[in-house]
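Can't attach files on this board, so I'm pasting raw text. These are the components:
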Amino acid sequence: MADQATAIRNAPLAGLRGGSPAAILTPAAPASRISLRAAPDAVAALSAALGVTLPTRPKTSASSGKRHALWLGPDEWLVIDEDGKDLMAAAASSGVMHSAVDISHRNTAVIVSGPGAEVAVNSGCPQDLSLAIFPVGACSRTILGKAEIVLFRTAEDTFRVECWRSFSPFVFGLLSEGAEDAGH
Amino acid sequence: MLLIYCPYCEEERSELEFRNAGDAHIARPTNIAEISDEEFEAYFFLRDNPKGVIFERWRHIHGCGRFFNAARDTVSDRFVTTYKAGEPKPDLDAEPKTSAQVETYEALEGAAQ
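---
Top answer:
Structure tokens for the assembled complex are below.
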């Protein structure tokens, strides 16, 4: 009898390290994520069910422990739980009309940290990332080179760059180049 | 780089985040099955392509994802104004919405002597 084959789940960017002393790149740990869309009248119930208040202003986010809700559009949010909790069940328990898609494995993230993090991200992203315009907690869907990303500033010198799994080698490579330049 | 004001993000963003989506304010005939081929052609294919201000749909595709309308000058590429989808055509003569300032070398750096 043939041995049973076991599928091994490979995390994107597994084991990769990169960057420069100015901006260190670290692949983020696996997390659960949902793409959430809902009308304004469902926001309160969904916020209560998810345990994090869904932000309604552009470019803002809300966090509760390791769970973050990022504003992407007037009726669209990206909810990330770094502990890997079941967000789909939490959203479903709200009992109001909404659309939630589990994108935990579609997305992956790169953490860019260090004094040159801003410069490293700006190497491929056209947004103004100065602290006055893009403060801690600010988030935005935008573009990095040719890849669409969701940018989330978690600290003054730290960004979480969410991208699609298939784009992650490109994103990591471009950020590495940017991180090298940030040291000069 | 061209900066475009997104009425949903309430901020000027780089043109890289946007995509043009054709002329704005084109109403689909409600009796689409009854109109003649010529009328359908006029609605579906024929566009003005003016030299000067044009009303267009734009989509903030790599941002909030929303469609909105913009008045753009096809000669200078300047965005006169942008407004949310569904809002009526603004009266461009009445209110100069965007700053009329043009960044000239003299204004920014002073006289170059």
